C-alpha cells in the first residue's frame, strides 16, 4: 500500500564497505528513533549507536533524516549508512521488519512513490530505469538525459504552446462578443499555423533514433557469399572462437549474434550464412533466408563480397576481405579498388580502419549532443499528438474552430501520456518492476 512505511537495502549486495538502508513513509521517523534513540537534525549526517529491540547493539552508523515532502520519494525518509557486512545488514533488516507499520519494499517501490508523489514524472522514471541498466557510455549518456528531464522539459514546452492555442479557441468560442477578443478567420488561421509549426517540431523528434536501439545495441550484420571470411571476421572482432571457420561452403547455417561495445557504443554483431542462389541444401536455404532478413534489418551492413553484388542498404561498408589470399590477383585487386577498405582478419590488416568506419557510421545513428532519443511508448504518444495537430490548410476542419479545439485537446492528452499524467496504471507495474528492491 502507498501509505505503508517501506524499507530496503539500497546499496550493493553485502559484503561491501558501506550498506545503505532506506526507510520511507509516515513511520520513518519513529523507526529511526527506535534504532538510534533520537531524530537527528534534518539533512545532516550524524554518527549513532544503533540498537535492536532488546537494546543489543547492532552497529555504529551514520544516520540521516529527511522530512517530507522535499525528499527523493516525496515523503518522510531516513537513511542508515551501515558497515556493509552481511551480518550487520541482516540484523538491521530483521530489526526494521519487527517494527509495527514497516514492511520490506517491493522492486522499484521507492521510485514509484517518487512518481506518485510528483517528485519525478514517468519519462524521468523510465530514464532512471535505463540508467540502472546502462552498460556502455552511449547508454549512460542517453539514460542520464532522460532521467534528468530532457524529454519532460520539451513536453512541458509543447504543452504551454498547446495551452496558448486552446486559450485562443476558448476566447473565441465563449467570449466573442467582448471588444478585446480576436474573432473570425484570423483566429482559425493563427491556430492552424501554430498547430503546423508544433507538428513539424514533433516530427523532428520522431526522426531521431529510438532509445531501444541504443539500449539493445545497433545491429551490425556481416554478410557476403560463402567462404568470404565472415566467420573469421566476427571471431577477430570478438577475439574468441565464436563461429566455426571451415573451407567448406555453407558451414554457417544460421545467424550467430554476439554483443560487443566499440568506443562505448553498444552493438550486436551477427555472422550470417553465405548468400548464394544455387547449391544450397534445405537447411542451408533456411539459413540464407534468415541471413537476408538480418541484412534488411541491419543498422550497419559489412559486405564481404564483390561490390557489384552488395545488397541495397543505406549504411553499407564494402570490404575486400581475405587480403592475405588474393594479393596479386588482378581481378581481385580491381574489386578491392572499389571497396571502402582492404582487410585480412587473419593477419589483422585493416582491422583498425574497420573499427573506425563502424564507429563513425554508428555515431550518425545516435542522438547528437544535447538530444534525447524516445522510447517506443513515448514515440507512439508523440506520433499521435503530431497526427492530431496535422490539419490541411484550406480543409473543412481548418475553418472549424470547434474541431480545431478538439484536436488540440486530444494532442494534449497524447503528450500527457509521455510524462504519465493520464491513463498509465497498467504500464506502471511493468516499468517499476525493472528496478531493484532498494530503488
β-strand number: 12
| Structural class computed from helices and strand pairing | alpha/beta
Overall pLDDT: 85
Sheet having the most strands = 6 strands, mixed
First-last Cα distance? 16 Å
Query: Helical percent range?
Result: 40-55%
Q: What is the succession of H and E elements? A: EEHEEEHEHHHHHHEHEEHEEHHEHHHH
State the oligomer: single chain
Q: Which ranges are low-confidence, i.e. pLDDT below 50, for 5 or more consecutive residues?
A: 178-183
The helix count comes to: 16
Q: Which overall shape is indicated by the principal axes computed on the Cα atoms? A: flat
Per CATH, the architecture of the largest domain is: 3-Layer(aba) Sandwich
Amino acid at each position: 500500500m502507498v501509505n505503508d512505511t517501506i524499507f530496503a537495502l539500497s546499496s550493493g549486495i553485502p559484503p561491501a564497505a558501506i550498506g545503505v538502508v532506506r526507510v520511507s513513509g509516515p513511520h520513518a521517523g519513529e523507526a529511526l528513533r527506535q534504532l538510534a534513540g533520537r531524530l537527528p537534525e534534518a539533512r545532516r549526517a550524524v554518527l549513532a549507536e544503533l540498537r535492536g529491540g532488546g537494546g543489543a547493539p547492532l552497529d555504529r552508523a551514520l544516520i540521516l533524516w529527511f522530512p517530507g515532502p522535499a525528499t527523493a520519494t516525496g515523503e518522510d525518509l531516513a537513511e542508515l549508512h551501515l558497515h556493509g557486512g552481511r551480518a550487520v545488514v541482516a540484523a538491521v533488516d530483521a530489526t526494521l521488519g519487527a517494527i509495527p507499520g514497516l514492511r520490506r519494499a517491493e522492486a522499484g517501490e521507492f521510485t514509484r512513490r517518487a512518481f506518485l508523489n510528483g517528485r519525478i514524472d514517468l519519462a524521468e522514471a523510465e530514464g532512471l530505469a535505463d540508467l540502472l541498466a546502462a552498460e556502455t557510455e552511449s547508454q549512460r549518456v542517453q539514460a542520464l538525459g532522460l532521467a534528468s528531464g530532457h524529454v519532460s522539459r520539451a513536453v512541458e514546452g509543447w504543452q504551454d504552446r498547446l495551452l496558448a492555442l486552446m486559450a485562443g479557441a476558448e476566447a473565441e468560442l465563449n467570449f466573442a462578443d467582448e471588444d478585446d477578443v480576436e474573432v473570425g478567420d484570423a483566429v482559425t488561421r493563427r491556430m492552424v499555423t501554430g498547430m503546423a509549426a508544433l507538428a513539424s517540431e514533433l516530427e523532428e523528434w520522431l526522426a531521431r533514433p529510438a532509445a531501444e536501439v541504443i539500449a539493445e545495441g545497433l545491429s551490425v550484420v556481416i554478410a557476403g557469399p560463402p567462404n568470404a571470411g565472415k566467420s573469421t571476421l566476427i571471431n577477430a572482432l570478438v577475439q574468441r572462437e565464436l563461429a566455426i571457420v571451415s573451407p567448406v561452403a555453407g558451414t554457417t547455417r544460421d545467424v550467430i549474434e554476439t554483443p560487443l561495445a566499440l568506443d562505448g557504443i553498444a552493438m550486436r554483431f551477427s555472422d550470417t550464412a553465405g548468400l548464394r542462389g544455387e547449391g544450397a541444401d534445405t537447411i542451408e536455404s533456411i539459413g540464407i533466408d534468415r541471413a537476408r532478413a538480418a541484412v534488411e534489418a541491419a543498422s550497419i551492413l559489412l559486405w564481404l563480397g564483390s561490390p557489384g553484388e552488395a545488397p541495397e542498404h543505406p549504411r553499407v561498408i564494402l570490404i575486400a576481405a581475405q587480403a592475405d589470399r588474393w594479393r596479386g590477383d588482378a581481378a581481385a585487386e580491381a574489386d578491392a579498388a572499389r571497396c571502402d577498405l582492404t582487410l585480412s582478419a587473419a593477419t589483422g590488416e585493416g582491422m583498425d580502419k574497420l573499427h573506425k568506419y563502424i564507429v563513425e557510421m554508428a555515431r550518425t545513428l545516435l542522438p547528437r549532443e544535447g538530444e534525447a532519443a524516445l522510447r517506443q511508448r513515448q514515440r507512439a504518444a508523440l506520433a499521435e499528438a503530431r497526427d492530431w495537430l496535422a490539419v490541411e490548410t484550406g480543409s473543412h476542419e481548418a475553418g472549424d474552430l470547434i474541431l480545431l479545439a478538439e484536436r488540440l485537446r486530444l494532442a494534449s492528452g497524447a503528450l500527457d501520456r509521455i510524462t504519465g499524467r493520464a491513463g498509465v496504471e497498467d504500464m506502471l507495474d511493468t516499468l517499476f518492476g525493472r528496478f531493484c528492491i532498494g530503488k
